[in-house]
């Protein structure tokens, strides 16, 4: 039962009950037989109109040659509710059949959570498919910044949700330890190293170099080990040791920052391995063999234009629409023989699908990468790997950091964009993880530093955590009085008839559906919104319904309900990587 989506089960039962009632009525000659009627089953906006409303009677009016109200009455007369999840059904409006949950359904919700609190909400939509979520993948040439902070919690939480929805989820960080940015990284360290020896005026710093304080610190550390041994070295002599030294310093720092942020990866995959193994060259050769490349000015190009045209036509665009698009081809191998980042990216994704057998790959990228999405998918299509169908890109909008109502653009430490480790010195990991996941990735995010540290209900993470702590305090106080939480088998949900009680149980029942939808839409912020709603429903219940000092049967039921809310709050906060405190 712990796996059950009881709202979905009830919805399906409405359709089954109405169909069965129709067939019985038709067998008795009260309705024409043999008709297929596709009525809807919806949740009414006002719970006074039931928990589900079936439009079966209106949908069948034309085929059955009868008014919807007359059909509804006949169906109602033949409904068999005795062993169902519903207590009663009413006819409303033009012929809606409004179904109301029975106490049995409310009991089942409480029992489903009790049976396996940590697994509650799990589903089988993923059917065991292997899905990789690749996220952050920041260049190891400097500290991680605010965008990485958002991408980190978005990817980590999404992988957690996919695992709960029945996928075999894998978390991966792609380390760009090769190519132009690493060359620039080593060149920047070398320039600062030479300035330590010759003075700032004695050696020019490259215009496109990395200017952060972290580069100066790396150069200083390198100098302390090697002295001026590389003073007269050629680029061929200093490039590899300086890049290796910088990466060996930076990558462990990245791992430490992400670990502090609550993120552990299944694998850190190094781009250099693709180059060193010849896999990039092999991938480019495959594209060439399939006829998707051509040479121009000494470079090897991918015919991205042709690949994208095929992709867009498959997706339903007309040839006229496609011909109007401003499409461009991409260089795979430069005239100097070096492979481009795009060539390595294609090889990396071929590795994900072909070598490691992932059914689906999800990349969390900044919105500035949107132009790269279709090109990479099309290149994988060209390799026969169905990139358009199996590669999903979650594009993430920018973060605006606010303090005192004004944008914060500078880091006290570096004078540049706020680094992740600076942020985590200012606020708790719980606040950071909750806030960065509080809006869908498609929306820009305003991160209010003042609000994130406030200890009141305006702070959303505090509001949810306080609901959990409040329940723990209630249980502890009652336990001191010798009152413990009864098992569901000893509780009669029929006594939980107040609107606040019924609403709270329905919200508990919604959790499996929220996980399913969050996995389907790649939108983990649904869990934040759900937890805020659940906490709010609990606070309203607690303010309206006494738990202590009331009739024993009702106290037992309300205590069971409160403890159930506690378990689901802890479950949801755990998905987000946020703690569920016992005291606040």
SSE layout:
Elements: H1 6-27, E1 41-42, E2 52-54, H2 56-64, H3 68-77, E3 86-92, E4 96-101, H4 103-115, E5 130-134, H5 146-164, E6 168-175, H6 180-198, H7 213-226, H8 235-260, E7 267-270, H9 271-276, H10 279-289, E8 293-296, E9 299-302, H11 304-314, H12 319-323, E10 330-333, H13 341-355, E11 360-366, H14 370-382, H15 387-390, E12 391-396, E13 399-403, E14 406-407, H16 420-426, H17 429-436, E15 445-448, H18 449-452, H19 460-480, H20 499-521, H21 525-544, H22 552-576
Parallel strand pairs: 5-6, 5-11, 6-7, 11-12, 13-15
Antiparallel strand pairs: 1-2, 2-4, 3-4, 8-9, 9-10, 13-14
Helix pairs in contact: 1-3, 2-3, 5-17, 5-20, 6-7, 6-8, 10-13, 11-14, 19-21, 19-22, 20-21, 20-22, 21-22
Q: How far is the first residue's CA from the last residue's CA? A: 33 Å
Q: Please summarize the sheet with the most strands.
A: 5 strands, parallel
* Overall 3D shape: flat
Q: Indicate the structural class.
A: alpha/beta
> How much helical structure, as a percent, in the residues?
40-55%
Low-confidence stretches: none
Mean pLDDT: 94
The share of residues in extended strands comes to 5-15%
